Input
Amino acid sequence: MWRNTESGWGLVSILLHWSLAIAIVGLFALGWWMTGLGYYDSWYNLAPWWHRSTGMLVLFATLLRLAWRFVQPTPAARGHRLERLAAHLGHIALYALMLVVLVSGYLISTADGKGIEVFDAFVVPALVSDLPNQATLAGEVHWYSALALILLAVGHALAAFKHHLVDRHDVLTRIIKPAHCRRP
Output
Protein backbone atom coordinates (compact mmCIF):
# COMPACT_ATOMS: atom_id res chain seq x y z
CA MET A 1 0.00 0.00 0.00
CA TRP A 2 2.61 2.56 1.04
CA ARG A 3 5.53 1.19 -0.98
CA ASN A 4 6.17 0.87 -4.69
CA THR A 5 6.11 -2.51 -6.39
CA GLU A 6 7.50 -3.69 -9.71
CA SER A 7 4.02 -3.18 -11.19
CA GLY A 8 2.94 0.12 -9.67
CA TRP A 9 3.56 3.16 -7.49
CA GLY A 10 2.78 3.11 -3.78
CA LEU A 11 0.71 5.67 -1.92
CA VAL A 12 3.74 7.67 -0.70
CA SER A 13 5.09 8.10 -4.23
CA ILE A 14 1.66 9.01 -5.59
CA LEU A 15 0.99 11.60 -2.88
CA LEU A 16 4.43 13.16 -3.30
CA HIS A 17 4.04 13.24 -7.09
CA TRP A 18 0.67 15.01 -7.10
CA SER A 19 1.29 17.34 -4.17
CA LEU A 20 4.57 18.50 -5.71
CA ALA A 21 2.98 18.85 -9.16
CA ILE A 22 0.20 21.05 -7.77
CA ALA A 23 2.61 23.07 -5.61
CA ILE A 24 5.05 23.67 -8.47
CA VAL A 25 2.33 24.82 -10.86
CA GLY A 26 0.93 27.03 -8.09
CA LEU A 27 4.35 28.49 -7.30
CA PHE A 28 4.94 29.23 -10.98
CA ALA A 29 1.58 30.99 -11.29
CA LEU A 30 2.14 32.94 -8.06
CA GLY A 31 5.68 33.88 -9.09
CA TRP A 32 4.56 35.11 -12.49
CA TRP A 33 1.65 37.06 -10.99
CA MET A 34 3.69 38.69 -8.23
CA THR A 35 6.30 40.05 -10.66
CA GLY A 36 3.63 42.45 -11.90
CA LEU A 37 2.64 43.78 -8.49
CA GLY A 38 3.20 47.44 -7.76
CA TYR A 39 4.86 48.75 -4.62
CA TYR A 40 1.55 49.95 -3.16
CA ASP A 41 -0.31 46.73 -3.94
CA SER A 42 -1.55 44.99 -0.78
CA TRP A 43 0.06 41.71 -1.97
CA TYR A 44 3.47 43.29 -2.68
CA ASN A 45 5.06 41.80 0.47
CA LEU A 46 2.61 38.99 1.17
CA ALA A 47 2.90 37.19 -2.20
CA PRO A 48 6.71 36.77 -1.96
CA TRP A 49 6.32 35.56 1.64
CA TRP A 50 3.90 32.85 0.47
CA HIS A 51 6.14 32.05 -2.50
CA ARG A 52 9.30 31.69 -0.35
CA SER A 53 7.58 29.74 2.42
CA THR A 54 5.90 27.32 0.05
CA GLY A 55 9.09 27.04 -2.00
CA MET A 56 11.06 25.90 1.05
CA LEU A 57 8.44 23.26 1.87
CA VAL A 58 8.54 22.10 -1.75
CA LEU A 59 12.35 21.88 -1.55
CA PHE A 60 12.10 19.65 1.53
CA ALA A 61 9.37 17.53 -0.10
CA THR A 62 11.45 17.20 -3.27
CA LEU A 63 14.44 15.98 -1.28
CA LEU A 64 12.14 13.53 0.52
CA ARG A 65 10.75 12.37 -2.83
CA LEU A 66 14.25 11.80 -4.22
CA ALA A 67 15.29 9.86 -1.12
CA TRP A 68 12.10 7.76 -1.32
CA ARG A 69 12.72 7.07 -4.99
CA PHE A 70 16.24 5.80 -4.25
CA VAL A 71 15.05 3.29 -1.62
CA GLN A 72 11.96 2.09 -3.48
CA PRO A 73 11.69 -0.04 -6.62
CA THR A 74 10.61 1.80 -9.75
CA PRO A 75 7.71 0.20 -11.61
CA ALA A 76 8.62 -1.18 -15.02
CA ALA A 77 8.43 1.42 -17.79
CA ARG A 78 6.02 0.90 -20.70
CA GLY A 79 6.58 1.44 -24.40
CA HIS A 80 9.38 0.63 -26.79
CA ARG A 81 13.05 1.18 -26.06
CA LEU A 82 13.23 4.79 -27.27
CA GLU A 83 10.11 5.77 -25.27
CA ARG A 84 11.53 4.19 -22.13
CA LEU A 85 14.82 6.05 -22.63
CA ALA A 86 12.96 9.34 -23.23
CA ALA A 87 10.87 8.76 -20.09
CA HIS A 88 13.99 8.05 -18.02
CA LEU A 89 15.83 11.13 -19.32
CA GLY A 90 12.67 13.22 -18.90
CA HIS A 91 12.35 12.22 -15.25
CA ILE A 92 16.01 13.05 -14.62
CA ALA A 93 15.49 16.46 -16.27
CA LEU A 94 12.35 17.11 -14.19
CA TYR A 95 14.16 16.36 -10.93
CA ALA A 96 17.22 18.39 -11.98
CA LEU A 97 15.11 21.40 -12.97
CA MET A 98 13.08 21.17 -9.77
CA LEU A 99 16.28 21.34 -7.75
CA VAL A 100 17.72 24.18 -9.85
CA VAL A 101 14.52 26.22 -9.49
CA LEU A 102 14.28 25.62 -5.75
CA VAL A 103 17.96 26.20 -4.94
CA SER A 104 18.11 29.34 -7.09
CA GLY A 105 15.01 30.64 -5.30
CA TYR A 106 16.74 29.97 -2.00
CA LEU A 107 19.82 31.87 -3.24
CA ILE A 108 17.70 34.86 -4.27
CA SER A 109 16.01 35.01 -0.89
CA THR A 110 19.18 34.59 1.17
CA ALA A 111 21.46 36.89 -0.86
CA ASP A 112 21.27 39.53 1.89
CA GLY A 113 22.45 37.05 4.52
CA LYS A 114 19.06 36.64 6.21
CA GLY A 115 17.37 33.27 6.54
CA ILE A 116 13.95 32.44 5.12
CA GLU A 117 11.05 32.44 7.57
CA VAL A 118 8.78 29.58 6.59
CA PHE A 119 5.21 30.56 7.47
CA ASP A 120 6.58 32.13 10.68
CA ALA A 121 7.10 28.60 12.03
CA PHE A 122 10.87 28.20 11.54
CA VAL A 123 13.78 29.82 9.73
CA VAL A 124 15.90 28.22 7.03
CA PRO A 125 19.34 29.78 7.55
CA ALA A 126 21.28 31.60 4.85
CA LEU A 127 24.13 29.21 4.16
CA VAL A 128 25.39 31.10 1.10
CA SER A 129 25.20 34.86 0.80
CA ASP A 130 27.06 37.95 -0.37
CA LEU A 131 28.29 36.37 -3.61
CA PRO A 132 28.80 38.93 -6.37
CA ASN A 133 25.41 39.63 -8.01
CA GLN A 134 23.92 36.65 -6.17
CA ALA A 135 20.31 37.80 -6.26
CA THR A 136 20.47 38.95 -9.89
CA LEU A 137 22.18 35.84 -11.24
CA ALA A 138 20.07 33.48 -9.14
CA GLY A 139 16.98 35.39 -10.30
CA GLU A 140 17.85 34.81 -13.95
CA VAL A 141 18.50 31.11 -13.33
CA HIS A 142 15.29 30.86 -11.28
CA TRP A 143 13.10 32.42 -13.98
CA TYR A 144 14.44 30.49 -16.98
CA SER A 145 14.67 27.16 -15.18
CA ALA A 146 11.10 27.63 -13.90
CA LEU A 147 9.94 28.22 -17.49
CA ALA A 148 11.83 25.13 -18.65
CA LEU A 149 10.37 23.09 -15.78
CA ILE A 150 6.80 24.08 -16.63
CA LEU A 151 7.32 23.32 -20.32
CA LEU A 152 8.85 19.93 -19.49
CA ALA A 153 6.01 19.20 -17.05
CA VAL A 154 3.47 19.94 -19.81
CA GLY A 155 5.36 17.54 -22.09
CA HIS A 156 5.37 14.97 -19.28
CA ALA A 157 1.59 15.28 -18.87
CA LEU A 158 0.99 15.10 -22.63
CA ALA A 159 3.14 11.96 -22.84
CA ALA A 160 1.12 10.37 -20.03
CA PHE A 161 -2.14 11.14 -21.88
CA LYS A 162 -0.68 9.77 -25.12
CA HIS A 163 0.27 6.53 -23.39
CA HIS A 164 -3.15 6.31 -21.77
CA LEU A 165 -5.37 7.28 -24.71
CA VAL A 166 -3.40 6.14 -27.76
CA ASP A 167 -1.18 3.29 -26.57
CA ARG A 168 -3.66 2.04 -23.95
CA HIS A 169 -0.86 1.58 -21.39
CA ASP A 170 -1.60 1.88 -17.68
CA VAL A 171 1.02 4.61 -17.13
CA LEU A 172 -1.54 7.23 -16.07
CA THR A 173 -3.62 4.94 -13.88
CA ARG A 174 -0.49 3.73 -12.08
CA ILE A 175 0.26 7.27 -10.83
CA ILE A 176 -3.37 7.84 -9.84
CA LYS A 177 -4.17 4.63 -7.97
CA PRO A 178 -1.81 2.65 -5.74
CA ALA A 179 -0.86 -0.77 -7.11
CA HIS A 180 -3.05 -2.66 -4.64
CA CYS A 181 -6.19 -0.71 -5.64
CA ARG A 182 -6.07 -1.44 -9.39
CA ARG A 183 -7.56 -4.38 -11.16
CA PRO A 184 -5.04 -6.84 -12.60
